[in-house]
Amino acid sequence: MNTIYVFGNIFIGVTSGVITSILLWVSYKIFYLKVLLSWLQERIYEGVIIEGSWGGGHSKKEVHEILGKPEKTHTFEPRIDMHMNILEQKGHNITGVFHAESYNKAGEQTKYINDYEIKGNIIGNYVVINYRALSKKRAGLGSFVLEIKDGGRELQGGVSFVSEDDMEIGTLEKVSLRREEN
Predict the structure, then answer these.
(1) What contacts 2, CB < 8 A, 6 or more positions away?
(2) Which of 47, 118, 130, 132 has the most CB atoms around its CB within 10 Å?
(3) In terms of pTM, does the model score above 0.85?
(4) Rounded to whole angstroms, how far apart are CA atoms 158 and 164?
C-alpha cells in the first residue's frame, strides 16, 4: 500500500472529523441555547411578565451606608432617580438597561449620571438583577433584590453596590420602581 495514500486518507478523516465537531458545536450554541431553549422557557414560564419600562428611585435619610465604615455614612437627604428598561424577558431571564441620576437635598445634581447593563432572573415573586456600567470607562456595579408588588405594577426592595466615587460597598433600602405605561 502506498504511504502517501494512507496519510492522505488519515488527513482527510481527521479534517472532516474536526469540521463536523465544529459544525455540531455551533449548531448546539445557536439552535439549542438561543432558539429552542428560549422558546421552551417562554412556553413553560407561568410567572409575571416584567418586560417594559420602570421608573422610580429612592429618597431617605442615611441612605448611603458604607459597610464597616460608619463615619462615611451620608446623612443628608439625597434623591436618586432610576429608570429601568427591561428590554427582553425570556422565561425567568431578563436583560436590559438601567439609568440612575443622583441629586442632593436641594434638588441639585451631584455625584453621577450613569447607564448600566442589567441581567437578572425572576425567582418566585422576586427579581434579582445584577448591573454593571455600560461604559468601560466607569466602574459602577451592583445587585438589586426586588419583590413584585401591586399585581406586577411595582418592584420594591433594595440594592447593594460599589460606589463609584470612593469604591466602597454601599446599600440602599426601600427602592421602589413602578411600571411606566406606554
Answers:
(1) none
(2) 118
(3) no
(4) 18
Range picked from 4-18, 23-37, 39-53 for highest mean pLDDT: 4-18
Looking at residue 75, its amino acid is T
Q: Are 156 and 149 in contact (CB under 8 A)?
A: yes
For residue 43 the three cell numbers come to 412556553
H/E stretch holding 7 reads: helix 3-27
Q: How many CA atoms lie within 13 A of 10 on its CB side?
A: 6
Which three cell numbers, joined as nine digits, stand for 80? 436618586
> For the segment 42-100, what is each residue's pLDDT rounded down to a tens digit?
677 777 888 888 888 876 554 455 566 666 555 545 567 788 888 888 888 899 998 88
Q: pLDDT tens digits, residue range 100-111? A: 887 655 545 566
Cell of 135: 461604559
For residues 146 and 69, what is the distance between their CA atoms, to the nearest angstrom?
26
